[in-house]
Amino acid sequence: MTEKKIILGISCGDIHGVGLEVLIKAFSNNTLFDFCTPILYAPISAVNFYKKLYNWQDFNYHVITDPQHASPKQLNIIKISEEEIAVKPGHSTELAGKIAIKSIDLAIEDLKKKSTDVIVTLPVNKQNISLTHKDFVGHTEYFSQACDNTPNLMLLCNDNLKISTATNHIPISKVSDSINRSVLEEKIKILIKTLQIDFLISKPKIAVLSLNPHGGDNGLIGDEDLKIIAPVVDNFFNGGNLIYGPYSADGFFGSGNYKNFDAILGMYHDQALIPFKSMSFGAGVNYTAGLPIIRVSPDHGVGYDIAGKDVANINSLLSAIFLSLEIHKNRLLYLANIRKTDNN
After folding, report:
1. 286: closest CA among 168, 177, 117?
2. How far apart are CA 313 and CA 155, in angstroms?
3. pTM for the structure as a whole
4. What is the CATH class of 151-289?
5. Which one of 22, 97, 106, 178 is at 20 to 30 Å from 250 when CA atoms are compared?
């Protein structure tokens, strides 16, 4: 029996950034169509702009109004604007923000209707989206809201490292007040469950990083590690989970200790993303873990400085696509195993 191909929904991101050009480059390679059927939510005029800019005359797409009419061997496009839009690579505009959020909304709508299986989000500019959507701070939070505020985790993935954050897009001045036992317990539970279901790691080994330098030096440099983080780690470990820490981030990564764990929980955005991007920039994936849907994204931004110059790298997008397919397959395998166990 032929395995059903996964239907891949793709939001267009900022049309003035590198998203659309790396997408077209990626699907110019016909081998991708052996693994998925892509559906892009975007203005046709924006796609045509990049096709003309780079003289990609051999690149063809299929315009549809519903995912069920998708062609299995072409990039399918559900158009979100009838206007002829003037694309300006490298420029931030309010219109680009409106298009980006409309594309995300349509992609989410089809995913909720099960017309698509997973979503890949191309990079957006949060600032121009916020001109019309004041509360938008990032894809992670937006997708959580779309899923009834389901607790979630920003998980950065590559072949050798999975690292998540206890707090996401908040000012560094608010991180300490945002770290408490309840938050850490929730995040660790999500991470354990994600590793078990989405990555099929039955007994995951997880490292938790400290908040303060040197793990707080026994309270000399802040007491959050002693009073909040360490007790949570101990409770999970004593409950039979392979949870260790808190580890001081500099020594943890400098010594290579990160290689001994299936995943890591950092306390704040840059503590996790600086080591991650140092090791895998251009090939990593941002995955919103804990949601009932599957949403992934390349680990880079809009890249205004290189937009329209034909130098943007497609590797992170390819990694995101293949990770979404892997997670979808793993979820099905996990459910099949649960059913098999229940029937025995």
Report:
1. 168
2. 21
3. 0.93
4. alpha beta
5. 178
Q: How far apart are CA 344 and CA 342, in angstroms?
A: 6
SS3 15: coil
H helix intervals, 28-180: 44-53, 94-112, 126-130, 139-146, 175-178
Q: Please, are residues 245 and 229 in contact by the beta-carbon 8 Å criterion? A: yes
Give me 277's structure tokens: 């991007």
* Upper half-sphere CA count for residue 175 (Cβ side, 13 Å): 19
Write the DSSP string, 163-201: EEESS-SS-GGGHHHH--HHHHHHHHHHHHHHHHHTS--
Q: Which pLDDT score, from 0 to 100, does residue 3 have?
A: 62
Identify the bridge partners of residue 220 per DSSP, sorted by sequence position.
222
Query: What does the DSSP 8-state code read for residue 239?
Result: T
What's the count of helices (H) and strands (E) in the chain, helices before strands?
12, 12
Residues of the chain with pLDDT under 70: 1-3, 344
Please report the pLDDT score of residue 65 as a whole number.
95
Pick the CATH number of 1-150+291-344 from 1.10.8.60, 2.60.60.20, 2.40.50.140, 3.40.718.10: 3.40.718.10
Terminal Cα distance for the chain, rounded:
25
Per-domain boundaries in the chain: 1-150+291-344, 151-289
Q: Residue 273: which region, alpha, beta or left (left: phi > 0; alpha: psi -120 to 50)? A: alpha
What is residue 83's predicted lDDT score, i.e. its pLDDT?
83
